Amino acid sequence: MNANRRIFGKFMRTVVAACAAGAMALSLAACGGAEGSKNAQASSAGDSGSLVVDSDFDLITMDPARSFETATVSILRATYQSALKYVDNNMSEPQPEVCSYEISDDNRVVTLTLNGDHYFADGKKVTVDDIVYSYQRVQGIKGNPSFYLDGVTVAKKDDRSLTLTSESPNPAIPYILPSVNLGIVEKSVVEANGGTTDEKDGAEKYLNQHSAGSGPYQFDTVAMDSKVTLKRNDKFKGDKPKYDKIIINNVDSATELTNIKAGTTDIALDLNSDEAAKLSSSEAEVSAGPSGSTTFLWFNADSQYGNIASNVDFVNAVRHAINYPKYVSVYGKGSEQAYGVVPNQFLGALKSSDDNKYDLDKAKELLKQSGYNNEEIQFLYSSDDDSATQIAQLFQADMKALGVNIKLVGQPTTTRLDTFRSGKFQSGLSTWGADYPDPSDYFVFTPDQNISKRAGWYTTEGAQSSNGWNGSESADKIQSLVEAARKATSEEDRDKTWQDLQEGLNQSSPFIPLVVQGANIASRPGIGAKYDMLNNIDYTVLK
């Protein structure tokens, strides 16, 4: 599982800054002002003109098979079509874009079939060979997104269809395919510019300046430290895109707020909830919604590191001592309480949870059962993240009301990540951003898996190869629910088994889900831009 960037990554910007080499933000207010003002006049007159967007760049590469940075997603979505897509932010049901799909009863074979004619910018049709090549290239060059198709064999079936065959059942594949990293490239163009399906691939330099997709837009100019300009793909098969040109400027969030208030930009992508709240309805329309990032508390389940915090009754006391609405308010508009680790818009999500509900009397009863005796609990959080600092302070106050002594330990994000990953700290605050919108991405919270290892949560069997950690009864107990979720095949069964699993996690795991973070975009009145969970903004749906 790659941790450099998640597909819903705007909410993980501090993590990205710590884990990847992002570009420095440059203020281009003057440039945005001129073109934005002209565009405002043109749009009011009914001319499609140019759309001016402010974005805080972290661009490293524009190659869809390599890109894993936040600001690139919406750009690639505009220029590359995928086999499948999501419509109206509905993450529970992938829809056809270039292909329709079927999945076998055993969830091992996905068959994609071209659903019509689609055209690259040079007028050539999208073929099955292009799709097969695109996927095999993602696998072969072993860039950040390559894990999406781990254990999958991609093969042409005939001139209209291809198959993706998994080594083991993998019902998540249709939910992964809408990713921009699996955007379809034109094989002949990429190969002519050094493209291969192995680590010798040399097409990145070309793809950093030229798009090779079938989306409604194509690259015009690309300067990854300052500005990206998109122009219409006149060969695009679908509805004609609204704008002749999209100009995306690299602007820090403070300047984005200034520009959108002044009307000198059309869309601001990086305002936080406090900044968005400063906008009047006459200045901008703010579209907000829940993201794919779940903020949660964790407690070390191994008694040698967690001490009293490894006690299930202690953790469950904490669950009922948290005033959840206060935590939700920290992340602002669009945020929701997380009832389980799976975000609320995904298949298998919990819509409520009696286990994660504020009840101080019950919390005090459970705390007494745990045997807690005023021990100091060390709590780790990112000191360079304002929201995390507020959450840590709220948590300390809630625990004081419960009668628990919390010592806050703030560390810079990079250091905190390393400390958490060591598996030896007592408790803390973290966030998991989904790699793709499917519950299978959340097996990491089950015993012996990635996030659970950081919290010392091992089964008896798993602990035997853990190099020093101990297994726990709570981990052994939940394994039957984990296996049921792994074996479920139909969407109905997957939905049910994941809800059952999360209820089990809420009763015995060392994790307490707090908030599905909200996100927003601001746009000049009349633009009609909507926050998109997968892409942040989807320029292709602007009408």
TrEMBL record:
<dbReference type="GO" id="GO:0015833">
    <property type="term" value="P:peptide transport"/>
</dbReference>
<dbReference type="InterPro" id="IPR030678">
    <property type="entry name" value="Peptide/Ni-bd"/>
</dbReference>
<dbReference type="GO" id="GO:0030313">
    <property type="term" value="C:cell envelope"/>
</dbReference>
<protein>
    <submittedName>
        <fullName>ABC transporter substrate-binding protein</fullName>
    </submittedName>
</protein>
<comment type="similarity">
    <text>Belongs to the bacterial solute-binding protein 5 family.</text>
</comment>
<dbReference type="GO" id="GO:0043190">
    <property type="term" value="C:ATP-binding cassette (ABC) transporter complex"/>
</dbReference>
<dbReference type="GO" id="GO:1904680">
    <property type="term" value="F:peptide transmembrane transporter activity"/>
</dbReference>
<keyword id="KW-0732">Signal</keyword>
<feature type="signal peptide">
    <location>
        <begin position="1"/>
        <end position="29"/>
    </location>
</feature>
<dbReference type="GO" id="GO:0042597">
    <property type="term" value="C:periplasmic space"/>
</dbReference>
<keyword id="KW-0813">Transport</keyword>
<feature type="domain" description="Solute-binding protein family 5">
    <location>
        <begin position="98"/>
        <end position="444"/>
    </location>
</feature>
<dbReference type="InterPro" id="IPR000914">
    <property type="entry name" value="SBP_5_dom"/>
</dbReference>
<dbReference type="InterPro" id="IPR039424">
    <property type="entry name" value="SBP_5"/>
</dbReference>
<dbReference type="Pfam" id="PF00496">
    <property type="entry name" value="SBP_bac_5"/>
</dbReference>
